[in-house]
Amino acid sequence: MSPRASNLPILIKPGNLQTSAAIEAWVHRKLAGAFRRYGAMMTAVEVHFEDVNGPRHTGDDAHCVMEARVNGRTPIAVRARSHDLYSAIDAAARKLEAAIGRAVERIDTRARRRFRVGRTGRGGTGSG
Question: Residue 10 sits in a domain of what CATH number?
Fold first, then answer.
């Protein structure tokens, strides 16, 4: 992992849930892939938890929202619900990495398109 990615701030907001060192370590571990790939472009990540059904524990009651701030983009947010918090974190982290990948791909595609238009606009052949 790059030094930049390892220093990326992750703000965990537990909402109505109690977090533990194990939960926080799980969040960091699950976001490690996104940091390795996109850490240089990311400025911050917020992770929000909520127990939707309270103490009843019925169905998918763990809710996780992850929001990443990526240079040059509006914040990217994803959400996941599951029967337990670890599964919700896992699903949200996968979704976040995919969403960041799509956003970065769009940025790269637009930059290449502008570069080609600029080059072909001068001489018409692209050879300048």
Answer: 3.30.160.100
